Target: Glucokinase
Amino acid sequence: MDHIDAIRTPASWVVVGLDNGGTCNNATVLDATGQFLVDHLVENPSLVLDGPEAAIEQLAAALTGILELTRTPRTLVRAVGLDTPGPASAAGVISSKGATNFSQPDWHGFDIRGALEERIGLPVVYNNDANAAALYAHHRHFGADAMERSSVSAIVGTGLGGGVVEAGRVISGAAGMAGELGHVQIPLQDVLEQGQPVPRCNCGFAGDVESVASLTGIRNNLLPYWLTRFPGHPLAAEPVSAAAKALRSYGEKEDPLALSVFGQQAAAIGKLFTIAANFTDPAMYFLGGGVVEAAPRFREWFLQRVRENTDLRREQAEVAGFALVPDLDMAGARGAAVAALDSVSTAALR
Model:
């Protein structure tokens, strides 16, 4: 990567992106021209299960490590972008009820953005991880036209995260919870089989997207039903949590039970995108999460099923596209860096 070795000038300032996860932090550096200075994962343990103090120190260590790796003087860093799993406020305060990765009481209502800013002495710009991935997908796809375009992203993981990007910027909302697409309730006709129980979400809703299109939805709702339709299936002998995690490998082998489950997930996301089409009419629909990390044939099949279940008007279908989120394992950190770069650039124009 020759640009890492290039002689820097005081004008060549940078921002850093930090993606905080349940196991690891991932870091990247983005310079003022929009060039990423690393093209691979750069990780360190996140230690979020050890509590806020340990986790903040690890984020600070991630910052130091990525600057050393890219030979970037700290004096050139204008801002740091941070993303974490939600739920959290737009200002980076973890929900008062905690979250999957922030289950200890010390995390409840903790201002992770403010704590990191105080620790490192640099401005910190916050997004949740799904919004960061959505922002990166948007800018990577549209390039120089990113600030002129709009997109909606669905990120399928343990839950279903999302992001709505308008004119190149994430819509965060009054409380910072815009783009929580997993908890949009959808019509279930053409999604469920006749007699299939209405799926329930951990949030308390019935029939929202996450109750179908997520690992949790597979475990709690879809797999128990479909195992009754495929008696003797090998996954029936496994604990349901292990079976849910193994299901994608069966889908890659075109196993009928697995394709039935993932077909319902794709249909649910298609219903979500149909709703999005009537709210924001985006130029692009992005799909991310575990399906992106699957074998190419399977992920293209899944994306095609999503497309087929998205009901667009003819005028919309002529101008809108569907794509997978690129570089998924790096998308969070890169999106966090893009948000930081935009924040610095916007401030410079004021």
Summary: The chain has two domains: 2-122, 144-325. The longest strand covers residues 24-31.
